[in-house]
UniProtKB/TrEMBL annotation:
Cofactor stoichiometry and binding remark: Binds 1 zinc ion per subunit.
Gene that this polypeptide is encoded by: htpX1
Protein name: Protease HtpX homolog
Catalytic residues of the enzyme: E142
InterPro entries recorded: HtpX_protease, Pept_M48_protease_HtpX, Peptidase_M48
Primary localization: membrane
Family: Belongs to the peptidase M48B family.
Keywords: Cell membrane, Hydrolase, Membrane, Metal-binding, Metalloprotease, Protease, Transmembrane, Transmembrane helix, Zinc
Pfam families: Peptidase_M48
Domain spans labelled Peptidase M48: 74-294
Length: 309
């Protein structure tokens, strides 16, 4: 973890290491199985490595482009820059670039491979709905992701699942256009084996990434609450943002759903209890409960509970 005054979380660090180690083992086995089944996957591996490199080095630009975000100066957004300046000074960490997305969806996210290349983006819908103290809590949450370096880890981990899908397509088209002499029973067996292995790898990756994502959100809530000393204010922001998102038409949320793992709160949450097991975020109730425990630990050092918490 980079040196900052954000509350360190050894459990998060351990979980990130274990997740990346397990994913590494899964994908080594995956590539080995594909080499045996398909005889050659060099092209797929090269393409996947190139895409992963692009995702890692240009994740900030890709995310801003996808969310229609733009970098803003202190003159353009003095309130936003002021809050981030204060938080970075308190946390003793480099100030990230600051961006705004002209979306009504109230949300925020941090991206970038490290603290020196990080970007914190906030939607206009979030700034319009939150008081300055609440906005500070949300931004402290996002900055903690940068300090914990889990942004880079979740970016890499999330992208690895794409490899499985890429290999499936490669196998499908190579058999589809490989010639009539290849369309025999053995080819069908190999094709089904590739599909099965790919599906299994994707399922394992999905579960590992979701488990890490849920924990990192709780870790970010805790680090933000400890830095600001106002867990009840962060709880108020969570409650307000989650309630407002629930009132936005579903069709308007689906376009942003792909970024759930990076958002402060999910754009479109799970609708059933079972679905929560596969969610990128803990339930609102779980996050509020965790913040209430921190409030008790601090003895409400940050002040009286904020309205709406």
């Amino acid at each position: 973890m980079m040196r900052s005054r954000f509350e360190p979380d050894r459990q998060l660090t351990a979980r990130m290491v274990v997740t990346m180690f397990l994913l590494g083992l899964v994908y080594v086995a995956f590539i080995a199985a594909l080499i045996v089944l398909l005889k050659s996957v060099v092209l797929v591996v090269i393409i996947a490595a190139a895409l992963l490199g692009a995702q890692f080095w240009y994740s900030d630009r890709i995310a801003l482009y996808a969310m229609h975000g733009r970098l803003v100066t202190p003159e353009e957004q003095p309130r936003l820059h002021g809050v981030i300046d204060r938080l970075c000074a308190t946390a003793d960490m480099p100030k990230p670039r600051v961006a705004v997305s002209d979306m009504d969806l109230p949300n925020a996210f941090a991206t970038g491979r490290n603290a020196d290349n990080a970007v914190v983006c906030v939607t206009t819908g979030l700034m319009r709905r939150l008081e300055t103290e609440e906005l500070e809590g949300v931004l402290a949450h996002e900055l903690s992701h940068v300090a914990h370096r889990d942004v880079a880890v979740i970016t890499i981990a999330s992208f690895l699942g794409v490899i499985a899908g890429l290999v499936v397509r490669f196998a499908f088209y190579s058999q589809l256009f490989g010639g009539r002499d290849q369309r025999d029973q053995n080819t069908a067996v190999v094709f089904m084996a590739v599909m099965t292995v790919s599906a299994l790898v994707y399922a394992i990756s999905f579960l590992l990434i979701r488990a890490l994502s849920r924990y990192r959100e709780l870790a970010a809530d805790r680090a933000a609450a400890m830095l600001t000393g106002k867990p009840s204010v962060l709880a108020s922001a969570l409650t307000k943002v989650s309630g407002d998102i629930a009132r936005i038409p579903t069709r308007d949320l689906r376009t942003a759903q792909a970024f759930n793992a990076f958002f402060f709160t999910p754009a479109l949450g799970p609708g059933t209890t079972v679905a929560h097991l596969f969610s990128t975020h803990p339930t609102l109730e779980r996050r509020i409960e965790a913040l209430a425990e921190i409030s008790a630990q601090l003895g409400e050092a940050g002040g009286e509970p904020h309205a709406g918490a």
